[in-house]
């Protein structure tokens, strides 16, 4: 009888210990301002990606009370130097973490310049519920009132929260939580640099508490439509900017270079000049996929609006920015060159 009681008590103790186990969070560091080092704490100049991930973790010791933290240095670049190869490396490593059950959540530290692009790319290629949260900072680690430690603490809090599962890749910045598809950088220097102009943030993280107020209705969460591995060859897709009296010469050049796709950062509702229209006709006739996006901060590009997309052979980006439309077109072309299928991707993902 005593043995049974002891076994029972041991089971209860083990169960309680297991229930109190802290979530395991792996930080994948890529560089950026959050790891930046400046010569002066009160001046803007700095070098991105100088501080290792271990020092970033060490700057917020209180986070150890909410999670078991480990870190890996994936790269040490300013995000203006972010590359497809680093994206591929991140995707492969995250999929490995999931397959081996190495973590309960992942945080990626990243420069802000292309943070939204990395987030959306990963959202399209990571097919699991594990929280993946990207963050960074607008001030280097050595600056007065550096925002990196708080942003990193918040991102870890978001990644450790069970409510973050199944929401796709998230961006946590300045106490707001954003959907990777909708978020964009809107300020060159301010600490509240990110917004989701069309939809607003999904929620917020404040004082160690995570609250969500909405969810994305797009199909990427938990069901990534595309796959990236070591053998994946990503198509060549370029962006051409439209403005008053813009020359179509770059479009002609890209046709000669036989790129796989072109995104036009059009004016207004994805519009462009007659000169651009003539050049785009040559591109689509050469079997180059062309997507109409807009340089405007908000709003959708409407299919067959002022432009006859059916006649021209173009697709529209919906409300994706040119830089994100490039990512979806690039990944879409790994599966299909059919115009109707490509357009369906833009309306679904």
Automatic annotation (TrEMBL):
Signal peptide limits: 1-19
Span of domain Asparaginase/glutaminase C-terminal: 236-346
Domain of life: Bacteria
EC number in record: 3.5.1.1
CDD domains cross-referenced by the UniProt entry: L-asparaginase_II
Keyword Hydrolase found: yes
Top EC category: hydrolase
Keywords: Hydrolase, Signal
All copies of domain L-asparaginase N-terminal, residue ranges: 24-217
Keyword check for Signal: yes
Pfam families: Asparaginase (PF00710), Asparaginase_C (PF17763)
Gene Ontology annotations of biological process type: asparagine metabolic process
Coiled coil regions in record: none
Active site positions: 33 (o-isoaspartyl threonine intermediate), 33
Family: Belongs to the asparaginase 1 family.
UniProt protein name: L-asparaginase
Organism: Flavobacterium hydatis (Cytophaga aquatilis)
